[in-house]
Amino acid sequence: MQKKHNTIHQFQHTCQHRRQFLKKYIVLTGVISSGSFLASIAPSTSWALEAHHLNSFQAQSLLSMAKRLYPHEGLDDAVYAILVKDIDQLCNTPETRKVVLKGLSLLNSPHPFNELSAAAQVEKLNSIQETDFFHKVRQQCITSIYNHPLAQIYFGYEGESWSKGGYLLNGFNDLIWLDNPPEVASPMPFKEYHLN
Question: Which of 69, 94, 99, 196 is least surrounded by CB atoms within 10 angstroms?
Fold first, then answer.
């Protein structure tokens, strides 16, 4: 009977420890909607973001900031959350953490950024656009969002082409988001020659 009691106690302790870990480190969670392009390619329809330096409110503010800076209809929050993870990792250095926390404080005062209308969010971003925080987040958005494979699939980027012979003969003219130009605007760059 004592052994069973010890096992239950260990299990309860483990569950309590796990809950404390989740409360401390999991700051953003989400579900990929079934209509999203990510639903067909992501390994799971749910996601969670672990952060060590940012709390949930700060992480959500960064996520909203990224979505306002680089809005893409239909791009799931899971892709924008990569920015939050990367900014959190940059906060390992005291200087960066100070810049980020000060910037988040500016972003959320006098009212939380997430509660502002779209127009008020743009106005708020315009008011802080000269800060180190704004520049750091904007720069990190570019690499975190646009270098991520899920975003690249969303945008139709097929990846590097050098190993496949270059872009000219591999996808140069397969743009799906632009109208096809007239034939005179896109002459063949060279003729293919076949040696007999």
Answer: 196
Is there a domain that residue 188 lies in? no
The pLDDT assigned to 19 comes to: 46
Residue 100's contacts (CB-CB under 8 Å, 6 or more residues apart) are 53, 54, 87, 90, 91, 133, 136
Q: Is residue 180 situated within a structural domain? A: no
Look at residue 56 and tell me if it is in a domain.
yes
Q: Is residue 177 part of a domain?
A: no
The whole-angstrom separation of Cα 142 and Cα 44 is 25
Residue 15 has pLDDT above 80, yes or no: no
How far is 45 from 82, CA to CA, in rounded Å? 16
φ/ψ (deg, to 5) at 103: -65, -40
- Count of CB atoms within 10 A of residue 75's CB? 19
Domain count, the chain: 1
- Radius of gyration of the chain measured on its C-alpha atoms: 23
Q: Is the pTM of this model over 0.90?
A: no
Query: Hey, what are 15's tokens?
Result: 């569950």
Predicted confidence band at 70 (pLDDT cuts at 50, 70, 90)?
A: very high
Q: What letter would DSSP give residue 192?
A: -
